[in-house]
Amino acid sequence: LLAEEEAVDIVEAETKFKEAYQIAEKSYRRSQQLQHQNQLMESQHRRDTNVMIYIRRRLAMCARKLGRLKEAVKMFKDLAKEVPPIMNVLNIHENLLECLLEMGNYADVQAVLAKYDDISLPKSAAICYTAALLKARSVADKFSADVAGKRGLTVSEMAAVEAIHRAVEFNPHVPKYLLEMKPLILPPEHILKRGDSEAISYAFYHLTHWKRVDGALNLLHCTWEGTFRLLPYPLEKGHLFYPYPSCTECADRELLPAFHEVSVYPKK
């Protein structure tokens, strides 16, 4: 709590987390030996495991913020191998994706996507838009809307455009932030998937990665609105995903500050 609430900078937070980790590790070892005695001991060990994983993730995030990218990537990769149920809600792979993008390590980004961008696994703006960015990267620097309009799209351009359409269907609020058509604010503490809060959080951390890929934002600008031709009534029928949830606006209004104009997905 001191690291989360009281620390004035990342260095101080990291010091506090390191202290917390030493204590958490001792508790973990102690409860590991006693976990089979009874249910109470088992739940205590589960709690100690969760606390330790939480602190390790926070330490990795500190390393990322302080520019120690290789160290952060190693920590996130080690964490991603863990199996306790808490891992389902932490989305460590999204932290890992962001770190690898910052390093410009696109081959490893592709490998992470190959594992997590799976039909059976939950999606997110980070996964869908990173997949689109990687596809855009192979064609964006030479893309011209005028030329494409005359000769049609090449196979790889079509793949990039389809990936953009898929991302926009998942979260339609992101492009306006990436294209700086809407002002970015600091991300809220909690986000709602497919909502404006997720879009702000994604764009806040990933806009630099889009700017680094020559022509990617131009490709997005030329193609993102084409998504809506496939979705005449997005609240009733989706194309690749479930229909867009109509309740996101209320939740986003609670998550986001009053001065922010919440982005709302039109009914048609």
Describe this structure as you would to a colleague.
- With 268 residues, the chain is mainly alpha-helical.
- The chain has helices at residues 2-6, 10-34, 39-65, 69-80, 87-90, 92-103, 106-116, 125-137, 145-151, 155-170, 174-178, 196-212, 216-223, 248-255.
- α3 runs antiparallel to α4 (69-80), α4 (69-80) packs antiparallel against α6 and α7 (106-116) packs across α8.
- The longest helix has 27 residues, at 39-65.
Task: Detail the topology: elements first, then pairings.
Elements: H1 2-6, H2 10-34, H3 39-65, H4 69-80, H5 87-90, H6 92-103, H7 106-116, H8 125-137, H9 145-151, H10 155-170, H11 174-178, H12 196-212, H13 216-223, H14 248-255
Helix pairs in contact: 2-3, 3-4, 4-6, 6-7, 7-8, 8-10
Main attributes of the structure:
268 residues; globular; mainly alpha
Share in β-strands: under 5%
Per DSSP E runs of 2 or more residues, the count of β-strands stands at 0
Helical run tally = 14
* Parts with pLDDT < 50 across at least 5 consecutive residues: none
Q: Would you tell me the overall average pLDDT?
A: 91
Return the structural class.
mainly alpha
Gross geometry:
globular
Largest sheet: none
End-to-end CA span: 45 Å
Q: What is the CA-based Rg, rounded?
A: 21 Å
- Pattern of helices and strands: HHHHHHHHHHHHHH
Q: What percent of the residues sit in helical stretches (DSSP H or I)?
A: 55-70%
